[in-house]
Amino acid sequence: MTTSPSISLFFCEDYRVEEGGKPMALGVLGPVIEVDYDEGESFEEREICLITHCIFPSSVKQATLELKFEIKSSDSDPFSIEREREFEQAEDESNLAWGAFIPLKFKLGLSHGARASAVVRCGETSNWSELNVQVV
What we know:
With 136 residues, this protein is an all-beta fold. The chain has strands at 6-17, 23-29, 32-35, 45-56, 62-73, 76-88, 98-109, 115-122, 125-135. A five-stranded mixed sheet has the order 3-9-8-5-6, with no helix packed on it.
């Protein structure tokens, strides 16, 4: 049995929680977003969501997640945030694996070269994800 958490980090267009607490990530985005652009148009901003999904083994009773998130774009100043979040296993689930979905919504200007990147750590385990804008 492993004692390390499993961490996924990905970008999507929307995140919501359905009836019964079921998480829904809609429009999962790959590492590149292609944007059509005609000369003279202004670039739009699009709301995007970064999802951190963690699964902890039953032997882990509490955990601290550290998230570093950054946006870089040619038409605006860089933006970054760092967050730390504590999690604790529910007492009635002490012999089961447990987890959490953590959404972070943000706006990304869809100009050429815009990039959003994130790194998440929990103890010795880490993962990263990146989303790049390519104008076609």
